[in-house]
TrEMBL record:
It is found in: Cytoplasm. Residues 280-352 form the GHMP kinase C-terminal domain. SUPFAM superfamilies: GHMP Kinase, C-terminal domain, Ribosomal protein S5 domain 2-like. The keyword Ubl conjugation does not apply. This is Galactokinase. Pathway: Carbohydrate metabolism; galactose metabolism. The record marks 26 as: Transition state stabilizer. Substrate binds at residues 32-35, 220. It comes from Arcticibacter svalbardensis MN12-7. GO terms for cellular component: cytosol.
Length: 383
């Protein structure tokens, strides 16, 4: 595959690539819609992601091409940039912008991107592109940023350049992921623990609903706003800086401060989901996959009924998983509104599971999902 990309690079740009970088996508095992509420999440890197081949050019311009799209775009070096439209290249362009306004010396590059992550499926294809670009610039131009700096820069790209009010989890997992480990990340302090994630005789199945959703166009920002409303109501009595500073018992004693029942449901999910992450980390550390599976199902139910970010497509997949004996747990992952579900599936039953869930889903929804198997992979690297 890399040989083909190098050949493509030569054909496009008339020179050989000099460096190759890779950043994975991520799935969140549990702890959904928590990252912007200051709580605990448990993502891991997957083995799919974004490849970036680079070489400097003498023209002092940025040439962007992605094998996933058709166009080659040429953008001259400027002091700064602004987002134009909704094209894919805004993600790497936003990274270049942040390096420039940060005073870093950046020169013209030929850039070839290839991603084997399904776009818009909730596996953080955007964070993968942002992080691989930032890591490449940092390496090629000796910018001196730490990995944590790169996480913060790429989150800023997502929030300010792209305009999505997402938290820091995606960029963090893509950057700091470790093989066969989940990251129990505190989104408020950015302290994290790499939790041993021995799936034993299971693998991670990723089931793409094939119903794409674009975060900036979804109700994602609405959920962020609802959580802020809930926090303000609780702050009239409780001295807290975010929803995840309290546990379920404290929330239940004070939930009536939140007068809007829908907003109260949003907060209830956030607080209980944060507690589930704590329990999930203990279950994984103790190699109790069955307990972890129960928590996965509980997480999905909460996202469906309290947070209302699931949908018939995701629910169809999880409902099937509950009936399939080779599945230990399943839930939607990512922001929802379509995208992907994940399931812990017995390795020796994956082929049958894949065929069965495709048939079941297609009969209910009218078109087929895509099913992938993944191991837990590593974070961004130069190859």
């Amino acid at each position: 595959m890399l040989d083909n990309l190098k050949l493509k690079f030569s054909e496009l740009f008339g020179q050989q690539s000099q460096n190759t970088f890779f950043a994975p996508g991520r799935v969140n095992l549990i702890g959904e819609h928590i990252d912007y509420n200051g709580g605990l999440v448990m993502p891991c890197a997957v083995t799919f992601g974004t490849y970036l081949l680079t070489a400097p050019n003498k023209e002092g311009i940025f040439r962007f091409h992605s094998t996933n799209f058709d166009d080659v775009l040429e953008i001259p070096l400027q002091d700064d940039y602004a987002r134009t439209g909704k094209e894919w290249y805004n993600y790497p362009l936003g990274v270049i912008h942040n390096f420039l306004v940060g005073g870093k010396n950046v020169h013209g590059l030929d850039l070839l991107f290839y991603g084997d992550l399904p776009i818009g499926a909730g596996l953080s294809s955007s964070a993968s592109v942002e992080v691989v670009m930032a890591y490449a610039l940092n390496t090629l131009f000796n910018a001196g940023y730490s990995k944590l700096d790169l996480v913060k820069i790429t989150k800023k790209v997502e929030n300010e350049f792209i305009g999505v009010n997402s938290g820091i989890m995606d960029q963090f997992a893509v950057t700091f992921g470790e093989k066969n480990k989940a990251l129990k990340l505190d989104c408020e302090t950015l302290d994290y623990e790499a939790v041993e994630c021995d799936l034993a005789d299971h693998l991670l199945a990723i089931i793409n609903t094939n119903k794409p959703r674009k975060l900036a166009e979804s109700k994602y920002n609405e959920r962020v706003s609802e959580c802020q409303e809930a926090l303000q109501a609780l702050q009239s009595v409780l001295k807290i800086g975010n929803l995840c500073e309290i546990h379920t018992d404290t929330f239940n004693k004070n939930k009536d401060l939140i007068k809007n029942p829908i907003v109260q449901n949003r907060a209830k999910h956030v607080v209980e989901e944060n507690d589930r992450v704590i329990d999930a980390a203990k279950a994984l550390a103790a190699h109790k996959l069955d307990e972890f599976g129960v928590l996965m199902y509980a997480s999905h139910e909460s996202l469906k009924t309290l947070y209302e970010v699931s949908g018939v497509e995701l629910d169809t997949i999880v409902d099937f998983c509950k009936t399939y004996k080779g599945v230990t747990g399943a839930r939607m992952t990512g922001a929802g509104f379509g995208g992907c579900a994940i399931a812990l599936v017995k390795k020796n039953q994956f082929e049958d599971f894949s065929k069965s869930v495709i048939d079941y889903y297609a009969a209910k929804i009218g078109y087929a999902p895509s099913v992938y198997s993944s191991e837990i992979g590593t974070g961004v690297v130069e190859l």
